[in-house]
Amino acid sequence: MLDLLNDKVKELSDIERKVLSSLSSEFADFEDISISSGVPLDSVRRASAWLSQKGFAVVSEKEVERYCLTSDGEKALSKGMPENVLLETLTQMGGKASFIELEKESQLSKQEFMAALGINKRKAFVIISQGMIEETGVAKAQENFSEQNFLRDIADGKKVSTEFVIDLQKRGLVEKKRVVDRTIKISPNGEKAKEILSSSNVSRVFNIEAPVPELFLGKKAPYIQFLQQIRAKLVSLGFTEMETKLIVTEFYNFDVLYQPQNHPARTWTDTYQLKNPKTGLLPDKRIVDAIKSAHEDGGKSGSKGWRYDWSAGVASRLMPSAHGTAHSARQLVKGVGMPKKYFAIARCFRPDVLDATHLIEFNQMEGFIVGKDLNFKHLLGMLKDFAIEVAGAEKVKFFPDYYPFTEPSVQLSAKHPELGWMEFAGAGMFRPEMLDNLGIKGEAIAWGMGIDRLAMFKLGIKDIRYLFSDDLNYLRNAKGVLL
Question: 109: number of CA atoms within 13 Å, CB side?
């Protein structure tokens, strides 16, 4: 037992030793211990808690009434007592000023100004005549406004003369509150430890093998790290990020993409629509007429179009964007460079059944490249490299597919080590009905990639819902992402 006690004494910090040496068998206030030990009050509080945990001291707590600073008291403590502020301002103004000028310059409230004026007049620090106030020049010689020192003592929990407290309370700087009062005394083990300290020179030792609490440092969620690194990688490869909006018109989500207005994907079973407001603005009439012509008769593209009466009313309906290609459509309407590469990481919304690989609200990584000599092989090569190098997929497959806005079209699937084959990209070459009618000369390869599923590969997770998890255990222990 003695060896164990010696070991505990050796581990005591400097402030613990000083506080322990000042303790007695009678309960004492922390303020008194601070004075007798020469240790700052805050340090006494910390040392007392440590000594109590080690069994060397007993801390008693009871609820008592104490004086505390009000919000005005806190302000006076940090910026100075109103009477002091007034006097200092008057000095800076040359020692003489009108009431209006002084009140404005001192930035005191009306109540603070009048109280400060009365105190300074009562102490003969100023004289008042004909709406003017003049400094007498005796303030610094007589006193330094000790009230502010009392505010500091009250804030520190020290005892202050009742006479001064009542005055400060009347001025609204101090109020009574019920607080927990703590006192401390030495324990029997503390007496023994005190004897050991006084009888020999006990150097402090540190146990470097002692267990420590696990620290969880602040960090970004793994999926956010992944998205930011994808964004940085694409920008470094020369891609320009497109603007994305949560709410778009059907004009951008479907019509610019040459998707007919009677297409099943435009019904309530496949997309959401905004309830209020229901419609939005369409772009310039020249653009609208070009898209209308593309749908009705093919326009400048040379095709026959869809051969139906296109409706601007349907195109103006608002909806949460159903796919990232809606933002590519907006970029095509705004105009594109030649050659140039564009991308967007966009939030998308579709009615679906939640499971390990499907979400109702999800992200897509959308992009397209425009140029004079692009072909389908360029698209396939880029998709394969992206899936293997960025996602970490070991195997990829391509399947023929159909999208109203691309021809030819392709689906990219990759093999997850546990979930097996899954689709995570649709791609193709933008149709002439889109490009020609918007006056874009050249070819464009485009893709929409389920970047949530891409992240599943990289992060090694089985359930797509975990990308948005609030499970602290998972978030704390998840490893960082490096592409």
Answer: 6
What is the dotted CATH code of the domain comprising 82-144?
1.10.10.10
CA distance 265 to 405: 13
Which residues on neighbouring strands pair with residue 412, listed in sequence order?
A: 398, 425
How are strands ordered across the β-sheet holding 57-69?
28-29, 174-186, 57-69
14: pLDDT strictly greater than 80: yes
CATH for 2-70+152-199? 1.10.10
Cα–Cα distance, 250 to 320 (Å, whole number) = 9
Q: In the predicted model, is pLDDT for residue 140 greater than 70?
A: no
Share of the chain above pLDDT 90, in %: 39
pLDDT at position 274, please? 93
State the pairing for strand pair 240-241/340-349: parallel
| Continuous segment of H or E residues that includes residue 20 | helix 14-22
Residue pair 90/133 in contact by the 8 Å Cβ criterion: yes
Q: What is the pLDDT of residue 146?
A: 63
- Tell me which DSSP letter residue 317 carries: B
| 82-144 has the same fold as 2-70+152-199 | yes
Tell the residue number behind the tokens 């910026």, with chain if given: 79
Structure tokens belonging to residue 476: 């704390």
- Contacts of residue 312, defined as CB under 8 A and 6 or more positions apart, other chains included, come to 282, 288, 292
The residue ranges of every structural domain in the chain are 2-70+152-199, 82-144, 223-477
Q: What is the pLDDT of residues 248-306, one digit of tens each?
A: 999 999 999 999 999 888 887 789 999 999 999 999 999 999 999 999 999 998 899 99
∠440-293-310 over CA atoms, to 5°?
A: 130
Q: Tell me the helices (H) and strands (E) count for the chain, helix number first.
A: 21, 15
| Inter-residue contact 428 to 408 (CB < 8 Å) | yes
For residue 1, pLDDT beyond 70 = no
Question: What is the rounded average pLDDT for all residues in the chain?
Answer: 86
Fold of 223-477: BirA Bifunctional Protein; domain 2 (3.30.930)
- Report the pLDDT value the prediction gives residue 139, as an integer from 0 to 100: 47
Residue 300, number of CB atoms within 10 A of its CB: 15
DSSP string over 212-232: -PPP------HHHHHHHHHHH
